[in-house]
Design goal:
The complex is a heterodimer of chains A (about 290) and B (about 160). Chain A is built from eleven helices and twelve strands. With about 290 residues, chain A is α+β, with helices and mostly antiparallel strands. The chains are: A alpha+beta (about 290), B alpha+beta (about 160). The structure holds flavin-adenine dinucleotide and FE2/S2 (inorganic) cluster (2 copies).
Chain lengths: ~290, ~160
């Protein structure tokens, strides 16, 4: 179908965007349009005003700052995927992005759009959760920093206020040589995942784990860190890992049921996929001599 | 809502036309500009039939608004070959039975055209991933994949 009528706005600066957001009722921001346009064409959404942020050039781009790597909200998924900084410093994000849609959707779709839309299976907000990212948000009262742990408020619901917009995502990369792994199950390549898992580990000279991040996504309404299992991994030798607590915690999640799979099958997948992700993290970990 | 003026480069030529903001780029090309080579299937981003090249990248024209291409560059299937003078990729589609009903073909061609510019020597796996967002109900994809691989190797042999 065709999108319902709306009034189109094209701000050139953040200030113009803020002014529009505080003066318009029933307005939606248009970023890559790869989730919003389908919803409008299907008439699930009918905003009165569409605010196109594609021309605000300083909302896109990737830069290293003292506080971490900042990825502008309007950075296209294709540009994150081909970024040398991200390849070198946040390889987990690259692994995940290869599974996000197709070349045509990544050419338009943005990392910020995905983090605002919050599909439960979306890889980008999930990796932000695994990486303890911070979201830089601007609103009428100025700028605020939201830790990713406070970002998810439920299905398709973020902590973003009506008059706020997402400016950038800030990620503190792990030290060089850390292990990272990613696994998901989807019906076809590029489809939304039925479930997935991600793991990051760091080990000391003695080959024992000193830091771990474990995450399941597409299982519950929001991505979920497996924090008990993360603790259980600390001090374990990576060549003799006891993965039991990891799989057990993933399989105990409050899994969703939908037309694709039952909750029980999703729990099963959560266990399998976190195991695969952790295994991959052990193989990508650079052992200290 | 009132129409807005759009000025852009279409298949190498400067064009100016008016569009209602709610009109997507695919409809704009077909209905306002008469370029019916671009096909519209699902209108929600899943079939890939509507793929055109915008500023060098393959995009879904059903998920972009016509007003968004103001100042930009669009290439459609009409920019490839003409009857009797097909482009190398189109010839390879024909030689490999890369199409039957032809509905998916413009989207396949424009996706692969953009893909082969950035990936001149792809593997079969690369080609399959590149067209993962384009659905074909007829061919079973074999001929399409072969056409892309043949085009790439013919070009490599020429240069
Ligand atoms: C065929 C297909 C397959 C796909 N497969 C996947 C997949 O496997 N995994 C996946 O994660 N996604 C997938 N997607 C969706 C992905 O492509 C989208 O890019 C993403 O979900 C939304 O990003 P966007 O830039 O397109 O945002 P838009 O669609 O423009 O916006 C999405 C929402 O976020 C809001 N928004 C956007 N930017 C901001 C901002 N800076 N501040 C405040 N609010 C903002 C908008 O108002 C809107 O509500 C797929 C899409 C398609 C069409
Ligand atoms: S018509 Fe655009 S993807 Fe199907
Ligand atoms: S040739 Fe018929 S859909 Fe592809």
């Amino acid at each position: 179908m065709k999108a319902p009528p709306f009034q189109y706005h094209r701000p050139q600066t953040r200030e113009e965007l803020s002014a529009l957001l505080s003066s318009l009722e029933n307005a939606k921001i248009l970023a890559g349009g790869q989730s919003l346009m389908p919803m409008m064409n299907l008439r699930v959404l009918a905003p009165e005003h569409l605010i196109d942020i594609n021309r605000i050039s300083d909302l896109a781009g990737i830069r290293e700052t003292a506080d971490g790597i900042e990825i502008g909200a309007m950075t296209r998924q294709a540009d994150v995927l081909s970024s040398d900084i991200v390849k070198a410093r946040i390889p987990l994000l690259i692994r995940a992005l290869e599974h996000v849609g197709h070349i045509q959707t990544r050419a338009r779709g943005t990392i910020g759009g995905s983090c605002c839309h919050l599909d439960p299976s979306a890889e980008q907000p999930a990796m932000c959760a695994a990486l303890d990212a911070e979201l830089i948000v601007t609103g009428p009262e100025g700028r605020r920093i939201v830790p990713i742990s406070e970002w998810f408020e439920g299905l398709l619901q973020s902590a973003l206020g009506e008059q706020e917009f997402l400016e950038a995502i800030r990620i503190k990369p792990w030290a060089k040589g850390h292990g990272y792994g990613f696994a998901e199950y989807a019906r076809r390549h590029g489809d939304f995942a039925v479930a997935g898992g991600a793991a990051m580990i760091k080990a000391g000279n003695d080959g024992r784990i000193t830091r771990a991040a474990l995450l399941s996504f597409g299982v519950e309404a929001s991505p979920r860190r497996l924090s008990d299992a993360e603790v259980a991994l600390i001090g374990q030798p990576i060549d003799k890992l006891d993965i039991e607590p990891v799989v057990t915690e993933a399989r105990a999640l409050d899994a969703m049921e939908d037309v694709h799979v039952t909750a029980g099958y999703r729990r099963h997948l959560a266990g399998v996929l976190i195991r695969r992700a952790l295994h991959e993290a052990c193989t990508t970990l650079e052992r200290q001599p | 809502m009132t129409d807005q003026s759009v000025t852009f480069t279409l298949n190498g030529q400067q064009r100016e036309a008016a569009a209602d903001p709610r009109m997507h780029l695919g409809d704009f090309l077909r209905h306002s500009l008469g370029l019916t080579g671009t096909h519209i299937g699902c209108e929600h981003g899943v079939c890939g039939a509507c793929t055109v090249i915008v500023d060098g990248s393959p995009v879904r024209s059903c998920l972009m608004l016509a007003v968004q291409i103001d100042g930009g560059t669009v290439e459609t299937v009409e920019s490839l070959g003409k009857p009797g003078d097909l482009s190398p990729l189109q010839k390879a589609f024909s030689a490999n039975h890369g199409l039957q009903c032809g509905f998916c073909t413009p989207g396949m061609l424009m996706t692969l055209e953009a893909f082969l510019r950035t990936t001149p020597a792809p593997t079969e796996e690369d080609v399959r991933v590149a067209i993962s967002g384009n659905i074909c109900r007829c061919t079973g994809y074999q001929g399409i994949v072969q056409a892309a691989l043949d085009t790439a190797s013919a070009k490599a042999n020429r240069t």
